[in-house]
Design a protein that fits this description.
Elements: H1 3-11, H2 14-20, H3 23-40, H4 42-45, H5 86-122, H6 124-138, H7 142-156, H8 162-192, H9 196-203, H10 208-216, H11 221-244, H12 256-264, H13 273-299
Helix pairs in contact: 3-5, 3-13, 5-6, 5-8, 5-11, 5-12, 5-13, 6-8, 7-8, 8-11, 9-10, 11-12, 11-13, 12-13
Keywords: Cell membrane, Membrane, Transmembrane, Transmembrane helix, Transport
Membrane topology: Multi-pass membrane protein
Family: Belongs to the binding-protein-dependent transport system permease family.
Length: about 300
C-alpha cells in the first residue's frame, strides 16, 4: 500500500470523520499543537533565552505582565525573581516536560506491551508471576514509587550530570506506568489467542514469537493507543509534581513544575504571574491531551459509532 493510498483511506475513514465532526477534539488538537510547536521550536520562537545568564538583567526582575501598570512591553507575561522572561521560560520549560512525558510513556509502552503479550499468550506460571508483580506495583501510590526511585537515584549519584538526572526521572515515571499497559494488553491477548486465525497459525507451525508480533500485536494496539494518549498527560503531571517537590528536573533545566515551585515563593507577595502562567500552561497541555485521549477512545470503539 502506497503512502497516498493509506492517506486517502484515512481521510475517508471513520476516525477522521469523527475528528472533523467533534469541535472539542479539534479545539484540543489546536491547543496541543500550539503548545508542542512552541516547545519544540523554543530556540527560534522564544523572545529571550531565559537560561542564558549573560542576557539576564536583575533590574528587570519581578516585572508584571505588559498590560499592567508597571509592565514592560519587552516582557509580555512579566519576569521572575531573576529577570527571566516568563513567556520564554514557559516555552523552554514545556519542552522539558513534554520530553520527559513522551519518553517515559514510550518506555512504559515498550515494557508493558512486551510483558503483557508474553503473559496473555503463554499464560501459566509466567502469567501468574507477572500479574502478581503488577498487583504489588498497583498497591503503592504512583507518586510514592516515583519519589522513592528518584530519591534513590539522586542519593546514589549526588553529582549526577543533567542527562543522568533526566534518565532517573524518566525511569521513575516508567516504573509507575508500565503496569497499565501490561494488564490491558494481557487481557486483549487472552481474547485474541483463542481466535481461529491464531489457532490456524499454530497448526501450520508458525513460530510463537511471529504469531505474537505479526498477528496478535496489531489487533491489541487500539487500547494501547488510547491508553498512551491519556498517560502522556499523567506523566507530565507526575513530572511536574516531582519537580514541584524538588526531586524532578534539575534547577539548571527547569520544567513547568520547577517554574511553578519557584513562583510559589512569590505568590503571596503579589507576583502571581510567576506561578500562575506556568500553571495555566501545564493545565492546557494536560487537558488538551486528555480530551484527545477521550475522543480517540470513542472513535476507536465500534459500539459508539
Amino acid at each position: 500500500m502506497t503512502t497516498t493510498t493509506a492517506l486517502k483511506r484515512f481521510f475517508e475513514g471513520d476516525v477522521w470523520y469523527s475528528f472533523r465532526t467533534s469541535p472539542v477534539a479539534i479545539l484540543a488538537a489546536i491547543i496541543a499543537f500550539v503548545c508542542i510547536f512552541a516547545a519544540v521550536f523554543a530556540d527560534w520562537m522564544a523572545p529571550h533565552n531565559p537560561f542564558d545568564l549573560a542576557t539576564l538583567e536583575l533590574g528587570d526582575a519581578r516585572l508584571p505582565p505588559a498590560w499592567m501598570e508597571e509592565g514592560n512591553p519587552k516582557y509580555l507575561l512579566g519576569t521572575d525573581g531573576q529577570g527571566r522572561d516568563i513567556l520564554s521560560a514557559l516555552m523552554y520549560g514545556a519542552r522539558i516536560s513534554l520530553f520527559v512525558g513522551f519518553a517515559s510513556v514510550l518506555l512504559s509502552m515498550l515494557i508493558g506491551v512486551s510483558l503483557g503479550l508474553l503473559a496473555g499468550f503463554f499464560g501459566g506460571r509466567l502469567d501468574a508471576v507477572l500479574m502478581r508483580i503488577c498487583d504489588v506495583m498497583l498497591s503503592f501510590p504512583a507518586i510514592l514509587i516515583a519519589l522513592l526511585i528518584d530519591g534513590v537515584g539522586r542519593a546514589m549519584f549526588p553529582d549526577a550530570h543533567e542527562a543522568l538526572a533526566f534518565t532517573v526521572l524518566i525511569l521513575a515515571i516508567t516504573l509507575t506506568k508500565w503496569v497499565d499497559y501490561a494488564r490491558t494488553v494481557r487481557g486483549s491477548t487472552m481474547v485474541e489467542r483463542n481466535k481461529d486465525y491464531v489457532q490456524a497459525a499454530r497448526v501450520i507451525g508458525v513460530n510463537p514469537l511471529r504469531i505474537m508480533t505479526r498477528h496478535v500485536l496489531p489487533n491489541v494496539t487500539g487500547p494501547v493507543l488510547v491508553l498512551s494518549t491519556i498517560q502522556v498527560a499523567q506523566a507530565i503531571i507526575i513530572e511536574a509534581t516531582l519537580s514541584f517537590l524538588g526531586v524532578g528536573a534539575p534547577p539548571t533545566s527547569p520544567s513547568l513544575g520547577t517554574l511553578i515551585r519557584v513562583g510559589n515563593d512569590f505568590l503571596f507577595s503579589g507576583e502571581w504571574w510567576i506561578t500562575v502562567f506556568p500553571g495555566i500552561m501545564l493545565v492546557l497541555i494536560a487537558l488538551s491531551v486528555n480530551l484527545l485521549g477521550d475522543w480517540l477512545r470513542d472513535a476507536l470503539n465500534p459500539r459508539l459509532r
